[in-house]
Amino acid sequence: MGVRVSAGSYYSVASPIHALDPRVKLLIAIFFMVSCLFVDDIATLAVAGAFCIGAILAARVPLGRLLAQIRPVIAFLLLTSLLNLFFVHTGEVVVALGPLALHSGGIAAAAFYTMRFLLLLLMGSLLMLTTQAMALTDAAERLLSPLTRLGLPVGELCLVLSIALRFVPTLAREAQHIAVAQTARGAALEGKGALAYARACVPLVVPLFASALRHAEHLARAMDARCYTGGTGRTHYHALRLDIRHDGAAAALFATYLIMLAALKFIG
Amino acid sequence: MENEPIIELENVRFSYSDQPGDEALRGISLSIEAGTYTCVLGGNGSGKSTLVQIMNALVAPTEGSARIFGIDPVAEPERLIEIRRQAAMVFQHVDDQMVTSIVADDVAFGPENLGVPQREIVRRVDEALAAVDMAALAQADPADLSGGQRQRVAIAGALAMQPRVLLLDEPAAMLDAPGRAAIQRIAADLVARGITIVHVTHFMDDALRADRVIALDQGRVALDGTPGDVFSQRDAIRALGLELPFTIQLVERLSDAVPGLPVTADAEELAGALASRLATTTTVAATAETVPAAAGSSVARNGNDAVTFERATFSYADEHDPRRRPGLFARLRGRASRTAAPRGPLALANVSFALPRGSLTALIGRTGSGKSTTVELACALKVPNAGTVRVNGIDTTDLERRSAIRSSIGYVGQFPERQLFAATVFEDVAFGPRNLGLTEAEVEQRVLRALDAVGLPTAPDFIARSPFALSGGQQRNVAIAGVLAMETPLLVLDEPMAGLDPRGRARMKELIGSLKTNGSTILLVTHSMDDVAELADRVVALDHGAVAAIGTPRDLFLNNSDLLPGIPDALAFSRVLASQGAQLASEPLTLDELVEEVLHGRTR
Q1: Are residues A262 and A140 both part of a single domain?
Q2: Of chain B's two ends, which shows fewer C-beta atoms within 10 Å, N or C?
Q3: Does some domain include residue A164?
Q4: Between A53 and A101, where is the model more confident?
Q5: Helix or strand run (H / E) with residue B14
Q6: What is the pLDDT of residues B76-87, one digit of tens each?
């Protein structure tokens, strides 16, 4: 049972990207990811690729770390690009091999589909690598704070998210301890049919559930003791202040990218 | 100012339910003065935790009155926050009081809730982390810290609210000795800075450092006074299920032969008094010589080892699934990850030792030294990356004989009560024996035997109860019975005493002793050097994933104590005695040996 989960994948280093206000970073990353959906030819790919590579270089994150982040989805990407390659039948036939025929449209779809999602994933991973999970929830809380006027408990939701992140490693470790203990008492955890498997899970799931409840009870009391009374009247440890030079420069660069992309889409 | 009472309780009663017999507190009247350090003692269920929760208005008295900083929490519920801000609390469960995954952010949680301005929060977080010596780890993830470090972060979180009173509810119950010592140091610092502390504890050496000790019994104050006053009432202390501090136990044991020793908790003072009495009758210093190592080495070692580790190495980075043979893919990946930079630290490197059949081996070492990994390797729950681990001569990587290994080892992990799952005590204990494929009659026999062995009732109405409805100590015993019911010749116990009160610890010691006399081979992981001295035949000391020392307790404590996390109280006392000029003929490891040695020395 090699359950090892870490919340977030923050890579600590001083870089211009790390130093950005998390709100700016979050917004740029989200809009960049949306803009990737409009990448469908060489020119737009070049512009988006240049922006993404620029961001990666500025972030000073080792390429290996970045690639390790996206490795789990690469197989999925390859599969979908193969599907595109063989099943998109637009454009002229480039190669024909019996029933299989590669169309130029298929090749383009495969290439751009893959590249588009690769860029999207890279930017998402870069955001996670350069921003602590807490800073992200903090940024999200403040960006969404206008919604509190509509009665949405944004602060509470973000605290729940932060606590959930915090307890992922704890519960994973406990699940592992319980599995080890029950295995030592001869529990057979290998499946033999759905029903037997479900029954074999009881000795694992019940203690884990009990443990989650226990954590919840203790945590609630500890939060009470630390004067938590809900979102109103709380202040924030991290001052989020926009730095015109730094955050402004990043926003300006991103705006330039968007204008170029739009220009290419509408003119080209 | 010094003696101004800041917490006043008058005839406070509290009940978690409406049943009259079920009260946690039954009429407590006391006041806590500003600037004092008070320890609250009591067995499990004596109402200690409830009492401190009254003190910061987490619970309100059902009867009687409480005034905390002059505020009555029942009459003025709108001022609860005012109370909690000034009376901050740190709980026993290190994992369950942190809300974020960054240390500094967590410390900031309290001030954030109080609406403290941002600049001020930054200042307070820095100050609070510095006060508990955790400033260097401000950006760490609490999940990566040791229990002791996390508890220090929790204390910083309390301090960041700038409280006048700090309420500590068994903060060190789950910590190892260095973690506990750090909490003691911090508490002393804070008292010196003028913070009032109320500290609930199971450890008598905490109580000795306090100005005042309050012992609770069934929701009432049983004893109240200075540590000296309280601990001099020895029979009362024992009746409460508490344990006397080491020095006072010693005075008591010597009282017939050496009357008139001061009843003190101060080892130096007692040693001084004892040394002057010994010096008049003995001149043993010259004959001082260590007794040759006896016990463990007499155990036969000719292939009669229950478990052997041969240069076992284990790393979390390329761990194998113990249930599977490494497939081609895994082997390729293994090779790839070896060529890449190693990710995790090596959990164990080249560990070699053996557990002689019928012996009790203590496995000791600081947090993170590899004890738990060693245990999991010994139980075939993990397999080594290199080297071999054999159980009864069977290599743990031998999958065909895995079940033979499993049925010969019983494993009691840390906090075994957390693995309870069944609807009744009987069903839970029967889980293991049923997995062995025994007949129902055999299963029942084993369940009853196991429950009896751990000192639980075997009456039908008890075994039909839900294990979740039992007290903490009983839950642990049910879980241990669940392992004993496997009736394995080999038992691995991972810190079975952690978190128990003195009475529970004494019972557990008894149980381990009786398992040993019944011929079980035992591997005991423990933090307590006194338990090692009392129970173990052999000691394996780990440090940073390698074996630092192996030998009998006597051999290691006397000759290699610098490689161990600590020494037993008796040995420490005899060294103080020696420094005062009374060298004992042979150095004692346990209280019994110390008493014997002192009496022997006198009659010589």
Answers
A1: yes
A2: N
A3: yes
A4: A53
A5: strand B5-15
A6: 888 999 999 999
A:B CB pairs within 8 Å: 167
Q: Which domains does chain B have, with CATH numbers?
A: 5-242 (3.40.50.300), 247-290+569-603 (no CATH), 296-322+344-563 (3.40.50.300)
Answer whether 0.90 is exceeded by the pTM.
no
Distance (Å, rounded) from C-alpha A89 to C-alpha A92?
8
Q: Is B215 helix (H, G, I), strand (E, B) or coil?
A: strand
B492, closest residue in chain A (CA to CA): A184
Tell me the three state secondary structure of residue B383: coil
pLDDT at B329: 46
Stretch 477-516 of chain B: residues touching chain A, C-beta under 8 Å: 482-483, 486
Does A9 reside within a domain?
no
Q: Among partner residues B56, B104, B319, which is closest to A2 by beta-carbon distance?
A: B319
Nearest to A222 among B97, B421, B486 (CB): B97
B244: buried, middle or exposed (CB in 10 Å: 19+, 13-18, 0-12)?
A: buried
Q: Does residue A165 share a domain with residue A218?
A: yes
Report the domain count for chain A. Answer: 2
Q: How many CB atoms lie within 10 A of CB B39?
A: 25
Residue A3 lies in a domain: no
Return the half-sphere exposure (C-beta side, CA atoms, 13 A cut-off) of residue B163.
33
Predicted confidence band of residue B306 (pLDDT cuts 50, 70, 90): confident
HSE of B128, CA atoms in CB hemisphere, 13 A: 29
Which residues are B391's β-sheet partners?
B307, B394
ipTM (interface predicted TM): 0.80
Flag whether pLDDT at A1 surpasses 60.
no
At residue A165, the pLDDT reads 80
Q: Answer yes or no: is pLDDT of B337 > 60.
A: no
